[in-house]
């Protein structure tokens, strides 16, 4: 029977505490964001009323995009809600970005630290970092790109690189309902555990890929000798 890795985490929304925790991190960390649509139910209801009386196609298109925005949308329609940082395959910090001080602290840390950051599908996270700071992290890796180069199979089902597909056998299927990804659920314990698991799984995947590459290199050396 496969034993799933048990993730432990601490969380905070205090900029002071977050700053102390960031100072303790080692030189290699795995990171991931969570995000939610920035508009309140009341704002969306107002957009719908405006849509009913819109007189131009441009107004209709704009309002429709706002009404149907998702957490995966452009950063102008989305707020970052959490940054999770793991330094092992089972330990993580979750920073809850519910105020400007911790939001700015975290974004500034990500673009100024020289620690190597490992992200899975960095394009999603980096568009938010660049949108808010105009910069990108200094040292980073993307485990999804690395996994794709390792698998590299013409049959799509044999080259899937989703984090939960690659790490599900180690952590179990930790996905949760999309309904959790709202600003009202930022302190929900299921969401916090999900976030922490994402970061830990990314850290585990990074090390798994490194071990695989090293074993292939060792095999080639032994064959050549």
Question: Any overview of this molecule?
Answer:
With 225 residues, the protein is an alpha/beta fold. The chain is built from eight helices and six strands. It has helices spanning 15-23, 41-52, 57-67, 100-112, 122-133, 143-151, 163-171, 189-224; strands at residues 8-12, 28-37, 78-86, 91-96, 116-119, 140-142. It has a six-stranded mixed β-sheet, sandwiched between helices. The two termini are 39 Å apart.
Task: Offer a quick outline of the entry.
The protein is an alpha/beta fold. The chain has eight helices and six strands, in the order E-H-E-H-H-E-E-H-E-H-E-H-H-H. A hairpin with a 4-residue loop joins strand 3 (78-86) and strand 4 (91-96).
Features:
225 residues; alpha/beta; Nucleotidyltransferase, domain 5; six-stranded mixed β-sheet; 49% helix; globular
User: CATH class, please?
Assistant: Alpha Beta
Give unreliable regions as ranges. none
Q: Determine the fraction of residues in helical runs and give it as a percent range.
A: 40-55%
* The CATH architecture: 2-Layer Sandwich
Largest sheet: 6 strands, mixed
SSE order: EHEHHEEHEHEHHH
**What is the approximate shape?**
globular
CATH topology: Nucleotidyltransferase, domain 5
Judged by helices, strands and strand pairing, the structural class is alpha/beta
First-residue to last-residue Cα separation: 39 Å
Number of strands: 6
Give Rg in angstroms. 20 Å
Number of helices: 8
